[in-house]
């Protein structure tokens, strides 16, 4: 078992003929992901790698393949529209890898996707991988191995670091999800924690957060109230200096500075394990698997 | 991207918001001339990318042009949160009957732009929010419809009982929302919004932060960037497409990805060291970036050891290795370097490094520990 994707996942790649899109489409195919179509406006009718049909629009790709997932590698100024297009065409799970999507674009995208009943992961995220079954996004496949640990993170390379340490220690993963670090993202920690709680194969969850905002504190509250499975947390940025903040609005809206200390305290209050460094996950997870 | 008050005021004025006139001076003599032109009492305000200007002595009243000259002289010598004040805004002092606060920010939790308005504006607004939250109205805006008239009016009447003032405030909020969206901002703020004894509603201050991701769409806003008001090392890093923040320690860090970069700094501290910086070379692989990163880090005389921590996903570790070799050939290092590389093309990267006399590890803890040791002992290059 796993969350969000497995070996029945069928994927459309939006931006499949671009530099990043083509590179990662190949990587996903090599991993075993079922890539059923690509979309690049103006290149409809071509075949990617002699196998995957390319369409001009997501609607056409959906009509031909009825895929359940799409992954987006289009440039930042067009990414919001690509997400809207996928949701409108009836794609139920949309993974937006693109970094640099304007946040005001996301304020329009989020309610639209919600109304269409789709799930969005990202933008500005590495995607997700269910080891041995499917990967959607850019997480390197060879650092993962199947097993009982669920992983969710706001960061990219920090996720790789922790997964790599777990795999080296023989602790495999059900699914590893990078939710991305943008202010407005489609899927948050709580969505992933809830899914891991329901997934019978997941026995322990690792969660990597960062300073800023209150997502981790809310996630800790969710763990306290709703989770029976153990969760181990880490906060990056314990030594980061406070920024030169402009204006008062940020402090008023969150009522919190989003410091590492605040977040770690929230983890402790929720009886979560706290990793001081990435390597600590190994022992903390091992102890909770016994 | 931060812009100055005087720049934000120009944008707000263009949107129709009533704002008293003002001019920018870079010398005390200019400040005096502007004060003379306006006549009467003026306010001299530091133009700097940091909050808390008033509390730091960066905002002063001057009753005469001579006084404007002398306060401008003092303010132009200030550093506020380490940033030098290079410009002041001189503006006629307004008579104030009441101060309100109006702000818009993109809120992560609500996933919307949210208006926050309070009749208790001024420099203590954060305290108002913390202690008397009932004095603040929060109003999320659905970006698909924009700020509707009745919504603006609700907020106007929350600020003022007087219908004329409430309507004036409502129209200012509509204009502020338009300026916010049109500029691709992530924050726009008027603090204070004042009522004068004559009953006029005026914006006396203006703040705006623009989403860096919008700058390609708004070249006219991108032009407003004032590099002289930013830390030079941060300007150099941005122009090289790197994210850099200088710190006070002695272990120079080069990492790919912000989360891993912060975790690396934390680990330096965990092993008893102090990071000299935060530096994220980002996702793309380009040896040139590594060359620039090393230039920036070695310019800091506090750096006693350099630590690379690269986990290759999109980033190809061989590109990073090539960058290290090129950079150190151009400018031989005077301090030791510790390299940790793993991930995409790791074998090729290790070979490149070995062939050029570097050693590298694939273990993060090991590398960080070694870098801390070398920085503390002042050891020799590997």
What does this structure look like?
Chain A is an alpha/beta fold and 290 residues long. Chain A folds into two domains: 10-121, NAD(P)-binding Rossmann-like Domain (Rossmann fold, 3-Layer(aba) Sandwich), CATH 3.40.50; 127-289, 3-Layer(aba) Sandwich (Rossmann fold), CATH 3.40.50.261. Chain A contains ten helices and 14 strands. In chain A, strands 3-4-2-1-5-6-7 form a seven-stranded mixed sheet, sandwiched between helices. Chain A has a seven-stranded mixed sheet with strand order 9-8-11-10-12-13-14, sandwiched between helices. The mean pLDDT of chain A is 94. Chain B is 38% helix and 24% strand. The two termini of chain B are 40 Å apart. Chain B folds into three domains: 21-92, Dna Ligase, domain 1 (2-Layer Sandwich); 98-222, ATP-grasp fold, B domain (D-amino Acid Aminotransferase, Chain A, domain 1, 2-Layer Sandwich), CATH 3.30.470.20; 231-377, Rossmann fold, CATH 3.40.50.261. In chain B, strands 7, 8, 9, 10, 11 and 12 form a six-stranded antiparallel sheet that branches. Chain B has a four-stranded antiparallel sheet with strand order 1-6-2-3, covered by helices on one side. In chain B, strands 14-16-17-18 form a four-stranded parallel sheet, with helices on both faces. Chain B has 382 residues and is α+β, with helices and mostly antiparallel strands. At the A-B interface, helix 4, helix 5 and helix 8 of A face strand 7, strand 8, helix 4, strand 10 and helix 9 of B.
């Amino acid at each position: 078992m796993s969350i969000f994707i497995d070996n029945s996942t069928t994927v459309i790649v939006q931006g499949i003929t671009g530099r990043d899109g083509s590179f990662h489409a190949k990587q996903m195919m090599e991993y075993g992901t079922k890539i059923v179509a690509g979309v690049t406006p103006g290149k409809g009718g071509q075949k990617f790698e002699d196998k995957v049909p390319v369409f001009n629009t997501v609607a056409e790709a959906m009509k031909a393949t009825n895929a359940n997932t799409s992954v987006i590698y289009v440039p930042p100024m067009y990414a919001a529209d690509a997400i809207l297009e996928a949701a409108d065409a009836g794609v139920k799970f949309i993974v937006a890898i693109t970094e640099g999507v304007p946040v005001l674009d996301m304020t329009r995208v989020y309610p639209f996707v919600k109304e269409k009943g789709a799930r969005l992961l990202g933008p500005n995220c590495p995607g997700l991988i269910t080891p041995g079954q499917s990967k959607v996004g850019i997480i390197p496949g060879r650092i993962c191995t199947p097993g009982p640990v669920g992983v969710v993170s706001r960061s990219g390379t920090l996720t790789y670091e922790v997964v790599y340490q777990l795999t080296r220690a023989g602790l495999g993963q059900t699914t590893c999800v990078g939710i991305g670090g943008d202010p407005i993202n489609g899927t948050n920690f709580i969505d992933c924690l809830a899914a891991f709680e329901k997934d019978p194969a997941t026995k322990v969850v690792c969660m990597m957060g960062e300073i800023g905002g209150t997502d981790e504190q809310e996630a800790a509250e969710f763990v306290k109230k709703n989770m029976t499975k153990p969760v181990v947390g880490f906060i990056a940025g314990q030594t980061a200096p406070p920024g030169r903040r402009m204006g008062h609005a940020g402090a008023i809206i969150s009522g919190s500075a989003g410091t590492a200390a605040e977040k770690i305290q929230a983890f402790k209050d929720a009886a979560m394990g706290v990793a001081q460094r990435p390597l600590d996950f190994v022992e903390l997870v091992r102890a909770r698997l016994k | 991207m931060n812009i100055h008050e005087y720049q934000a005021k120009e944008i707000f004025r263009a949107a129709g918001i009533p704002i008293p006139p003002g001019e920018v001076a870079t010398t005390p003599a200019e400040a005096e001339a502007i004060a003379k032109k306006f006549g009467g009492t003026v306010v001299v305000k530091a133009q700097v990318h940091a909050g808390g200007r008033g509390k730091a002595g960066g905002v002063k009243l001057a009753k005469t042009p001579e006084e404007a000259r002398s306060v401008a002289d003092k303010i132009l010598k200030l550093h506020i949160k380490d940033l030098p004040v290079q410009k002041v805004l001189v503006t006629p002092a307004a008579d104030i009957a009441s101060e309100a606060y109006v702000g818009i920010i993109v809120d992560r939790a609500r996933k919307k732009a949210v208006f926050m308005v309070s009749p208790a504006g001024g420099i203590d607004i954060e305290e108002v929010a913390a202690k008397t939250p009932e004095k603040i109205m929060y109003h999320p805006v659905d970006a698909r419809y924009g700020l509707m008239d009745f919504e603006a009016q609700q907020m106007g009447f929350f600020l003022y009982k007087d219908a004329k003032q409430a309507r004036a405030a409502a129209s200012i909020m509509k204009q502020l929302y338009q300026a916010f969206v049109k500029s691709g901002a992530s924050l726009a703020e008027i603090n204070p919004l004042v009522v004068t004894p004559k009953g006029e509603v005026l914006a006396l201050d203006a703040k705006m932060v623009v989403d860096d991701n919008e700058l390609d769409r708004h070249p006219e806003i991108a032009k407003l960037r004032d590099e002289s008001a930013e830390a030079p090392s941060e300007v150099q890093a941005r122009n090289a497409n790197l994210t850099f923040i200088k710190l006070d320690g002695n272990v120079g860090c080069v990492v790919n990805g912000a989360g891993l970069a912060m975790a690396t700094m934390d680990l330096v501290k965990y092993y008893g060291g102090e990071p000299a910086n935060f530096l994220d070379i980002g996702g793309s692989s380009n040896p040139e970036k590594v060359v620039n990163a090393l230039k920036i880090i070695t310019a800091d005389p506090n750096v006693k050891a350099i630590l690379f921590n690269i986990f290759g996903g999109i980033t190809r570790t061989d590109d990073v290795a090539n960058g290290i070799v090129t950079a150190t050939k151009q400018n031989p290092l005077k301090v030791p370097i510790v390299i940790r590389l793993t991930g995409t093309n790791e074998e090729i990267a290790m070979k490149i490094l070995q062939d050029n006399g570097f050693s590298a590890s694939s273990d993060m803890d090991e590398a960080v520990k070694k870098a801390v040791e070398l920085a503390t002992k002042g050891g020799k290059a590997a």
